Amino acid sequence: MNKFWIWLNQLGSPPNFWAWSQAWLRGCLALALIMLGIGLYGGLVMAPADYLQGESFRIIYMHVPCAWMSLFVFIFMALQGAAALIWRIKLCEIFVVAAAPTGAVFTAVTLITGMLWGKPTWGTYWSWDARLTSELVLLFLYLGIIALYHSYTDHRAGARAAAILALIGVVNVPIIHYSVTWWNTLHQGQTVSFTGQSKMHMTMLWPLLVLTIAVKLYWIAVLLLKSRLLMLKLERGKSWARKVLAGAA
Amino acid sequence: MSGHWPYIIAAYTICFVLFAADWFASVFELKNLKRDTVMRLRRDESRSEASNKSTVREQSSVDNLVDRANE
C-alpha cells in the first residue's frame, strides 16, 4: 500500500475525521455566509433588471446554484457509493447517506423557485416538460434513497442499498442536463457556460457565480455536520466517541 | 414589473427556511445525542456506585458474621 492510500485511510478513520472536520465545518460555514451576503446584495440590489423578464429574473440567483448543486450532490453520492461498494470504506458509506437530505433540499428549492419564476414569466407554475419532469424524478430518487436507508435496521446494509440506488439513479443526471438540447422544452437552454461565451452580461453574472460558491460551501459545511452526527451515532459504543460525547456536554 | 417582488420574496424565504431547517435539524439532533449519552453515562455511574456500596455492605456483614463465629 503506498503512502497516499495510508494517508487517505488515516484521514477517513472516525477519530481523525472528527478532529479535522470541525475546523473545516466552521470555516466553510463562515465563508458561505459572507459570500451569501455579498451575492445576495449583488443579485437583489446591484444587478440591473432584465429587459425581457423584469425583476423576476432575480429568482435565478438561488434557482440556478441550487439546480447545479442538486446534480452535483447526486454525482458525489454515486461516486461515494461506488467507493463504498468497491473498497468498503466506512466514511464513503456515511457520505452517501449524509448527502441525500441536503440534495433533496436543493432539488426541492430548485423546483419551488422555478415554479415561482415560471408564474410571472411563463404564466404557469408548472409544465410537464422534460427539464421539469426529470428534475422532479431526481427529487423522488433522493427521497427514495433516504427512505431505503431508513428501512434497514443495520446501518451498513442500508448504506450499501442507498449506494446502489445512487449508482442506478445517476443515469438521470445527464438526462436532466441535456433535456433542453434533446427535446423541445419550455425551459430555456444553457445561459451560463464555463467553456464558451456566457449569454449573461458580467453585471448580472458575477452575483450568480458568488452565490454558486456560497451554496457549495454551505453544502460542504452541512455535509460535514451530518457526517459527524452519523459517525457519532454509529461509533457511540467506542471509547473515542464516548469521550467526545461526555466531554462536549 | 413591481408585481414580481412577491414571487422573489416568496422564493428566497422558502429557500432559506429549507436551508435553515436542514441545518438546525442536524444541530439539534447532535445536541440531543450528546445529552442522552451524558445522561446514560451518569445513570451507569450511579448504578455502579450503588452496586459497589451494596457489595461493600454485604462483604462487611459477612466479615462481622465470621468474626462473631471466631469469637
Description:
- The complex is a heterodimer of chains A (249) and B (71).
- In chain A, 78% of the residues lie in helices and 0% in strands.
- Chain A has 249 residues and is mostly helical.
- In chain A, helix 4 packs antiparallel against helix 8.
- Chain A is globular.
- The model of chain A has no long low-confidence stretch (mean pLDDT 91).
- With 71 residues, chain B is mainly α.
- The longest helix of chain B is centred in the middle third of the chain and has 66 residues, at 5-70.
- The interface between A and B is medium-sized, with 36 and 27 residues.
End-to-end separation of chain B in angstroms reads 105 Å
* Helicity range of chain B: over 70%
Question: How many strands of chain B?
Answer: 0
Mean pLDDT across residues of chain A: 91
Assign the structural class of chain A, choosing from mainly alpha, mainly beta, alpha/beta, alpha+beta, or little secondary structure.
Answer: mainly alpha
Our count of helices of chain A gives: 9
Largest sheet of chain B: none
- Principal-axes geometry of chain A comes out as globular
> Helix share of residues of chain A?
over 70%
What class would the helix/strand composition of chain B place it in? mainly alpha
Order of helices and strands of chain A: HHHHHHHHH
Strand fraction band of chain A?
under 5%
- H/E element sequence of chain B: H
Our Rg estimate of chain B from Cα atoms comes to 31 Å
| Count of runs of 4 or more consecutive helical residues of chain B | 1
Overall, the morphology of chain B is rod-shaped
Number of extended strands of chain A: 0
Q: Report the mean per-residue pLDDT of chain B as an integer.
A: 85
Distance between the termini of chain A: 39 Å
